[in-house]
Amino acid sequence: MGSFKYALRDGARLIIRHWGLAFLTIFTSMAVFYLIGASVLLVLNTRHIVDILEGELSIQAYLAPNANYEEAARAVADIGHVTKVVIITQEMALERLKQRLPDRADVLTLLGENPLPSSLEVSIDRADNIESVVMALAAIPLINDIVYAGKLAEKLAKFSSFAGHFSLAMLIVAITASAVVLFNTIRIAVYSKEEEIGIMLLVGATPTFVAMPFVLQGIILGGAGSLGASIFLALSYNGIIARLKDLMPFLPFLESNSVVLELGLILVGAGATVSLIASLIAVETFTRRAMKPL
Amino acid sequence: MDIRFSGVSKVFYPDITALEDVYLEIPKGEFVYLVGPTGSGKTTLLRCITREVAPTRGQITVGSFSLRKISRVDLSIFRRDIGIIFQDFCLLPHLNVFENVAFVLEVLGAPPREVKERTGEILDQVNLWRRRFLYPPQLSGGEQQRVAVARAIVNSPSVLLADEPTGNLDLHTAEEIMQLIMSINALGTTVIMATHNQYLVDAFRQRVVGIRSGRVVRDERRGRYNLDGEL
Fold first, then answer.
1. Could you give the ipTM of this predicted complex?
2. Mutate which of B72, B89, B118 to test chain A, going by most A C-beta atoms within 10 A?
3. What are the residue ranges of CATH 3.30.70.3040 in chain A?
4. Is the pTM of this model over 0.80?
5. Which residues are B19's β-sheet partners?
6. For residue range A123-164, what is the model confidence (pLDDT) as tens digits?
């Protein structure tokens, strides 16, 4: 208990003694974790949009005249990535058309014999598999024609994949930058107390005891930075989404506050963990060298 | 704690021999002066005991600890039983007298009440209780060295190493410090003191180990600083 109190007091002293550096470190980790949070939210939003569009995504495969529905449906169901096949007979197609055009029922009676082809409504698992499924469908002789919203699905899938990779790269760069800044801050603090640490080690302080105030300092700085970033992210996210909805009202953005809250908690945890590791490495390197005999 | 040097040599890079084939046995509770010219190896010998310096050859054992291979945790535990007094005091200027002494107990994880009581006792013993709120630069050389002594003995070490503890002091103050160290030795603490102070060595007669060019050249039970022109 005495040791912890000492570490807490000394950690606070270190922050106060190097307040300028502490401020810079908090500011840097705040900016870094804000960027990480923003890129994660970008990925979550694109995934959300893709998921919703994928749910609505289907391919219409029009069957050749007199084709056997069941046989065609079985052949389609065997294609990889196909999750559901619904048979739309000529009668069902006409019924749907009537429902879509309730005011023009009279016009439809003029058609005489039902001219609509029977078709299969094919659902797939992911938008980026659409191309391969379409190619497989085209190879089935019972199918005459294929209609699908291919370009939009493909573009969305590509953007989602790019956003995922970009976000991962951003995460690695940002966490590395944050760790380097924290490492240097702690290292400067360690060197400023070089003499004191030397005496501490000579009188029998353990390396863990020596490290504790610095590790606490690191956790406080990194944690404060990531907490600040989370607060700013929560404050700015709803505003940004409102603007985006004005610009692109047809896209379903994530509007749940719990996502931002969860992300905030993860960011604070990540900030504290990165700081812990960076501080430990900084102090450990020093104490290892200080305890090594000449 | 008994201290034993068995054939200890230390060569610093590239080829500076600081100690050469040193055999020395210091039983528990003994008072030993290390005497010799500057650069003879006295400080290196003391630093071998704290394992700030590792011998190139030979073995050093202090009590049950063999210093050749000692883990970092064991080294910390071992050092808790060693008190060190430096010639230049090595006090922390941003801590006051009380904090400089209490610091040792704090880093050893002593409870706050014990830190307060024990520090008070020691400051009283070295006549610094009234000066406890002053900072090192506000103290005289003798007072600073008394703080250093208090810090070295506050955790009741079994061994006290003193490297020129009176080097920067006038004769009267040096005698005061010497009396203090002798009283600590009288309580059973082994004391090894490196010194150039001929007057003190001759006035407070104890075992004298003479070192020249890293070698032990004499070892006398109740010796003098300088014998027939030799160390």
1. 0.81
2. B72
3. 58-148
4. no
5. B10
6. 887 777 777 888 888 888 888 888 876 556 667 777 777 877
